[in-house]
Amino acid sequence: MHSMFNGDFGIVLVNIFLLAILFATGVAIARMRSLFAIVMLSGIYSLVSAAWYVAVDAVDVAFTEAAVGAGMSTVVLLGAMLLTSRTAKPEKLFFRLGPLLVCLATGAALIYATVDLPALGDASSPANAGVGLTYLQVAWFETGIPNVVTPVLGSYRGFDTLGETCVVFTAGLAVALLLGFGERSLAERIRNEGRSGDHSTRKASAASDEDPS
Amino acid sequence: MLEFLLERANYWVVIVLMMIGLYITFASQNLIKRMVGLGLFQTTICLFYVTLGKVSGGTAPILFGDDAIEHHGAGHGAETEGGHAALDAVLAAGGEHAERVAHLTNTYSNPLPHVLMLTAIVVGVATLSVGLALVVRIREAYGSIENDEVNEIDLETALAQHAEAEKAVSEATA
Amino acid sequence: MNTDHHVILRVIAKMLIPVITMFAFYVQFHGDFGPGGGFQAGVIIAVAVILYALVFGVPAAMRAVPPVFTRSLAAVGVMIYAGVGFWAMLQGGHYLEYQALFHEPPGEHHGQHIGILGIELGVLCGVSGAMLTIFYAFAGRVAEIRDEDW
């Protein structure tokens, strides 16, 4: 790790600290049963990993993770939690033992595979000496944009990004097809609240929302 | 040996985090908790990719200093008039595209994993929403989001349908 | 939402929402020079509307930004992105080849700047529209958990 940061002790401490927070948050999520706490902790996990992205120089990814992972996905998870339930059932012992063994085996296999990986921060590793370095070298002459991530995203890999945009659009469409665009159920709620305002009619509107008319 | 371990300790921590996400996805019966575990797993995979693109001593892949000086002409303003002439001069002096591959004075991290993970995060939240929408529909259809309860209801419904079909057949033959 | 104890929240939100929107456009148009781009700006714009919906209620947000508009915005975003590609084809280049937009030799950057700006605009519209559609889909459903249960 010291070679990664050129012996800068402070950044190594930040690195260890952030990874420790991530580990604690992950273990807490695995042990929690309150879904509200789980959703909030997953937001914290995203935010801390965004801080860690800055420590490994990925400022664009950090920005995206902070906006999307910590903001948007927490909102969506909270919305889904409101529509379902607040607590999870405790897992049975059998259901904990099997996955634990699978995860231990997978983790051991992955750690065995890292022995062949290049060292962290190795500038001459195949990943860093290949196309990534070429982008850095040619991007300024070819596009004149200092932030190399933007030309790689938009120009060199424009097809890729077009595909991603289509995926996001399709996901929005799929959610709208599954849950409705939100207008009909909302109109029903406003009508019900205007009529009586108590909660028994909300249940009725939820039931009437079911019919696939 | 110690250096070998230290250089890879970061990978191992990330793999442990990954396995926590995988464990949550496998072990929990609650579908929302499962989706959270999947999100955790995905975030950690992005961490792993970005770690591989780190270059020691490098900075964020935003060109600065000598790397971001206009190679030809005086600047963006003069580019329209002087650009062609300067480029022609460059091409005449150094052959084809001599300036094309710049010699970088500063060290930067690899931008490619950043681009891939940036889009992966956005697609991740989109797929997470689709999964959660399915969970909401499951809750409306079954009244539960616990996996084992949903399976039980499915089994009971299938048995009831089977019994009904058998009864109908026996009535038809009788 | 007619109770009085949310007044500080509402005043602060009213101050924050224009700033958030402006920051989104800064992120969008400054993405060439610093961290940022269409994906981030789209989500930030969506978050501004979501903040409005959380503080002033979903019906008010739906009146301000109708669901019809958000889902059209998502479709229009993808079309803008694909349209930039077809523009390059009409100019005689390959699909999404920005260098061909103004018939420039290598080393000239106007086509690249305009092309990347165009597709980032498409990504902005697509992502913010899709995210708001997703939010409205979840928020428009009738909640199972009542407010008093928290």
Automatic annotation (TrEMBL), chain C:
Keywords: Cell membrane, Membrane, Transmembrane, Transmembrane helix. The chain crosses the membrane at residues 7-27, 39-61, 73-94, 114-138. It comes from the Bacteria. InterPro entries: CPA3_antiporter_subunitB, MnhB. Belongs to the CPA3 antiporters (TC 2.A.63) subunit B family. One of its GO terms (cellular component) is plasma membrane. It holds the Pfam family MnhB. This is Putative monovalent cation/H+ antiporter subunit B. It is found in: Cell membrane. The keyword Secreted does not apply. Residues 8-133 form the Na+/H+ antiporter MnhB subunit-related protein domain. It comes from Hyphomonas jannaschiana VP2. It is a multi-pass membrane protein. Signal peptide: none annotated.
